[in-house]
Amino acid sequence: MKIAETIFEDGGHKWIALVRDPKRPHHIIDTNEYLIVCDDDAILCDPGGSEIFPAVFSALSAEFDPSRIGALFSSHQDPDIISSLSMWVEFNPDIKCYLSWLWAGFVSHFGGTEKTFVVIPDGGMDILVGGLRLQAIPAHYLHSSGNLQLYDPKARILFSGDVGAALLPPGEDGLFVENFDHHIQHAEGFHRRWMGSESAKRDWCERVSRLEIDMLCPQHGAIYKGEDVARFIDWFADLEVGVLKIP
Amino acid sequence: MNDDAAEKGDQMAIGNQRGRQLRHIVRINEEIKKVIATAFTINLMAMNAIFLAKRAGTAALGFGVLSNELRRFAIDLQKQMAILSEMTYESVSTVTALLKQARLNQMLERTLDVCEGLGRRLVEDALHSRLNDMLAGRQEQSDAVSRRLTQMIADTVQLVELGSVLARSAKIEAAYGGGMSVSLTQVSSDFEQSISEIQGSLEKLTKHHLEESAA
What we know:
The complex is a heterodimer of chains A (247) and B (215).
Chain A: E1 3-10, E2 13-19, E3 33-38, E4 41-45, H1 53-61, E5 69-73, H2 79-82, H3 85-91, E6 96-100, H4 104-107, E7 117-120, E8 125-129, E9 132-138, E10 148-152, E11 157-161, H5 180-194, H6 198-208, E12 215-218, E13 224-225, H7 227-238
Parallel strand pairs in A: 4-5, 5-6, 6-7, 11-12
Antiparallel strand pairs in A: 1-2, 2-3, 3-4, 8-9, 9-10, 10-11, 12-13
Chain B: H1 3-56, H2 61-114, H3 117-136, H4 138-174, H5 181-214
Helix pairs in contact in B: 1-2, 1-5, 2-3, 2-4, 4-5
């Protein structure tokens, strides 16, 4: 079962990270899921693949009634992001799935009906969860061609999808980045290979550096907080991406 | 074995069964394709036989009539096989839906294993209502498709039996074909050979269908 860790709480407004399943088979990539709660409503960011659904559902249900999750946010179309869709629909047939307009027709192969999908335009949009206004912000080509992230201006947290992701070796499984220089080596190969566009990266760094962010929460690896957020954005801005060097 | 383990085993067995059904349907479809191809050949052969009979004149009048009948038979068989093909497609849709349901149930079983409290209750309710739905709906649909397929295969076997009789009669008529007798006998032997191939395919098709129904 995954660990459910509350990383932000202010009254009925919460961010719960679902991380690190010790029983996860090693051939399946580790993922982080984030539940944003506002009173009786909640949105689940990148709910994960169908294979890890039992671990996510069980950890989540210990903290929040899963049938009250009103929406899913899918940063992009990959199976480790959203292939569990049909299972979530099973528990709430009216659940909405927010995702890039580019992927609605593709992700519907994983489940849901025409009414399930709420498409987000390229420029992004606001998403209401309870009384909370979240911002879906564009991160196209980082790595997917229709890629979005979710910013909570009140909690000052950015769910960054694959940006900031790190493939951590066994034993280095802390929830937060503790030593940036050490941690970032586990993120470098991932970003060089997965992030395909230098200009998209520069544009993202420029836009995101203007946001007030206390925590940057990726879908794989550890969470950046405090000064490590700006450190990560600077590191990413300087990193050469979109170039494959075959030896 | 406790009840939970038994139920989980059941779900896996259901998944395996559906997989076997799909494999049988694929084989049925392969046999249908072979029959359609052979029926097309019979159609061409029958046209050729009609011309031969005309050239042979009055001596081959009977052979000409039978060739016409064989051509009609080939066209009817092609139509029949097209319907069978559509029905197997319907079977694939039904079995795929059942397979998907079985996979969802397996996933819910796995979730139940690791859940406690509220989550466990929600999963139990979901499983309960899903199993009821499955028993009431999809299975009946699957059985209905299977029954129609059985009937259609039986009708096709009868039709091919008629084709076989026509081919045998054509062979007898060929003997009265005068100067063209040798050619007409050769053509009628080809008819027999082709229809015998179709009968072989239908036997295999029936066997796969029976195994699919049993699964």
